Amino acid sequence: MTQSPVVAEVDFHAPGKHTGFLRIPHSVDRSAYGWIGVPVVVLNNGTGPTALLMAGNHGDEYEGQIALGRLARELTPGDIRGRIIILSTANVAAAQAGRRVSPLDAGNLNRSFPGDPRGTPTRIIAHYIEETLMPLADYAIDLHSGGQSLFYPATLLRGSGHNDRERASLKAMQDAFDLPYTWVFTSGGGPGSTAPTAMGAANRKGVVSVMAELGGGGAVTPEILHLCERGLRRVLHALDMLPGHAPDTARGSREVNAIGLIHAYETGVLELLKEIGDDVTRDEVVALIHHPDTPWTPATRLRSPSTGMVLCKRAMAQVARGDAVFQIARDVSA
Ligand SMILES: [Zn+2]
User: Fold this and answer.
1) Fewer Cβ within 10 Å of end Cβ, the chain: N or C?
2) In a domain, 55, yes or no
3) Å from CA of 48 to ligand 1 middle
């Protein structure tokens, strides 16, 4: 197998706290022998599990980037047991541009796994995460949001587990993260996963992993940021990696399965008639698409194809054919 061209400035095995860059070679007009730096922080203290904490997988998703940066600054090696690897802006060029995809190669990191060591920068990063970082990890947490186009409430995403140990670990991480919603995937995952996502990479390497969707709309929601920061410390404590932390009382999480998306077929300006958490029934009108360039034309009515509740909504008013407007979910127990 081709070796990764990435040079890590940090030692993943030495005790202590290490900061630096993962150097992704990038030879361009203005820099023939240049590299792109993905910032990385490693905390290492004695025996214990390894947790890989990631954000900025999509560059326009900000809560996780802030939360992991703050965690990286605040934690000292003496606070932890085991090893924590923090990639707070995994696709750094996308994060610097505030975009979902990298401006260098139009690469969507969370559609690029298992990556390619001889590929474009985004594919090299994916390959390094899957082949170098995941094998070091026991647990992985990948923090997302709805990006510019969507808005999610604070939601944990996880598989249902493939054996008793994994099921117990995933439930423990869910309970500890304690976000208002948990989306439990009913299929996929496991070592045979072909998913091009970081969670797929984790599954292929036997790493117990969860994701989170945390707000969106191209902004930072302080309340959701707080839930993220609280959840990260609670999870590390539950994994016995942050022994001195005193978690507050859990509030509980509503477990749902996403059952589908409602897409627009018309171009126009969107008026949402439903909010996150609202119930919808099949054939109910959930949004209007207005046509300001022909104001005498009636607004197009968008109907829900299914009964459930709104988990995620479009954050942008302008909408075009093929854009997702709502994601509909159902309670796991329903
Ligand atoms: Zn994302």
Assistant:
1) N
2) yes
3) 29
Helix or strand (DSSP H, E) at 214: strand 208-216
The verdict on residue 26 lying in a domain is: yes
100 Cα to the center of ligand 1, angstroms? 7
Which segments of 73-171 are extended strands (E)? 82-87, 139-144, 150-158
What angle do helix axes 63-74 and 222-238 make, rounded to 10 degrees?
50
Q: How far is the CA of 329 from the centre of ligand 1 (A)?
A: 18
Give Cα separations from 55 to 38, 143, 259, 266 (angstroms).
11, 5, 26, 33
Residue 188 has pLDDT above 80, yes or no: no
Q: How many domains is the chain partitioned into structurally?
A: 2
- The tens digit of pLDDT for each residue in 221-251 reads 999 999 999 999 999 999 999 999 999 999 9
Which domain range does residue 305 map to?
Answer: 257-331
243: in domain? yes
pTM: 0.96
Q: Are strands 324-331 and 318-319 parallel, antiparallel or unpaired?
A: unpaired
Residue 176 CA to ligand 1 centre (angstroms):
22
